[in-house]
Amino acid sequence: MTSTQSTAPADLRVGVIGVGQMGADHVTRISTRTKGARVSVVTDYLRDKAEEVPGQVPGCRVVDSPEELIAAEDVDAVLIASPGRFHKDQTIACIEHGKPVLCEKPLAMNPEDAYAVVQAEQASGKALVSLGFMRRFDAGYADLKDAITSGELGQISIVNCKHRNAHTLPGFVDSMMVYDSAVHEIDAIHYFLEEPISAVQAVLPTPGPRADEGQHDPMLLLFRTASGIIVTDELYVNTASGYEVRTEVVGSAGIATIGQDSGRVTTHLDGGRWGGSIPEDFRPRFVDAYDREVQAWVSAIADGTMIAERSATAWDGYLAAAACEAAEQALTTTGFVEVTTAERP
Ligand SMILES: NC(=O)c1ccc[n+]([C@@H]2O[C@H](COP(=O)([O-])OP(=O)(O)OC[C@H]3O[C@@H](n4cnc5c(N)ncnc54)[C@H](O)[C@@H]3O)[C@@H](O)[C@H]2O)c1
Fold first, then answer.
1. Domains present along the chain, CATH in parentheses
2. Ligand 1 atom, smallest distance to 82 CA
3. I need a surface site. Which of 73, 101, 294, 329 has the fewest CB within 10 A?
4. Under a CB-based contact definition with an 8 Å cutoff, are residues 124 and 201 in contact?
């Protein structure tokens, strides 16, 4: 009798830090829809929350702290989904342990801290940091990016973005519209155009009737890139409707639009109307993008490239932090605010 040995590579053992809304979603994604990976260890500031995971993911264990998780023998790679203020230190700890990390956005809360991560990665000599700007993996985004890169749209002059939410929680102030909403368009600008944002201006109309006290909703941000492309970003976070993200790229050879998908269109026989539906929030809208992002991360680690081709890097996180800081200043400044960035190490 001959013995048979499995030649299949062992699954990547992923440790997940923070199992709130995003972290729990990623645990489910890795456990049910990602090839070549499993969740081996979780941790959360709220221990009870973490203790729920092994019930759903057999073989997964809970540890007390992010530091213990990052150092654990049975963690090959780390997914950080804790609040943004912890990302810098947790990402640097992953770099110090030589472990690939997918950090949810933001990389850090300010450009200086984001730059510290860039420098730590550079000093380690290994590219280890992927940043969770998942829109890069959305099929529409990837298609639009390829149309821009191939030259199909010609020379790009203007990009028009729209980012709308049904509701936000009370206290979602103007700066959060920059750091939590516009940050996605800011990264999209870097992804699509492959050049940094050089200046940003806020244009604040009279607030709509659903805006919180002191909140400017809707608002418009204008970005100018290094080569002079203008990007408009309409942010409207209390539409009372649903989640919509649209992008239109205006070029010399073509004008391309994504995000207008209507899905199923129904003619309603009870009152002279037809139409589709709008997703409630970002999770159904971008579920495929999150799935592709995490699969691409796992596959890149398996093939040794470590960072997937379309993924945002630590440098993208730094550029986003610098642009957000300028956009926040622009909220209370007349005219354009310059974005200052350090040299890429
Ligand atoms: N890419 C996206 O589209 C997207 C969408 C939503 C959230 N996010 C990002 O994901 C991150 C998490 O957001 P969320 O909505 O899941 O928040 P959340 O509050 O639902 O979850 C955060 C979890 O982290 C835990 N936690 C707090 N401090 C911790 C620490 N020091 N170490 C470990 N765990 C800690 C909390 O107890 C909580 O369970 C944020 O950075 C957010 O910006 C990204």
1. 12-135+289-312 (3.40.50.720), 138-285+320-338 (3.30.360.10)
2. 24
3. 73
4. no
DSSP structure string for 225-272: ETT--EEEEEEES--SS--EEEEEEEESS-EEEES----S-EEETTTT
Residue 176 near ligand 1, beta carbon < 6 Å: no
Residue 83 CA to ligand 1 center (angstroms) comes to: 4
Cα(50) to ligand 1 centroid in Å equals 13
Q: Residue 111 and residue 317: Cα distance in Å, rounded?
A: 9
Its pTM surpasses 0.90: yes
What residue has token string 């949810």?
104
Query: Over the stretch 187-214, which tens digit does the pLDDT of each residue have?
Result: 999 999 999 999 999 999 999 999 999 8
81 lines ligand 1 (CB under 6 A): yes
Q: Is 83 in the pocket of ligand 1 (CB under 6 A)?
A: yes
Give the C-alpha separation, 237 to 231, whole Å. Answer: 19
Supply the pLDDT for residue 2. Answer: 46
Q: Does residue 44's CB lie within 6 angstroms of at least one atom of ligand 1?
A: yes
Residue 279: cis peptide before it, omega within 30 degrees of 0: no
- Residue 249 in tokens: 């790229």
Among 259, 135, 224, 139, CA closest to 185: 135
Q: Is 94 in the pocket of ligand 1 (CB under 6 A)?
A: no
Backbone angles phi, psi at 242, to 5 degrees: -160, -165
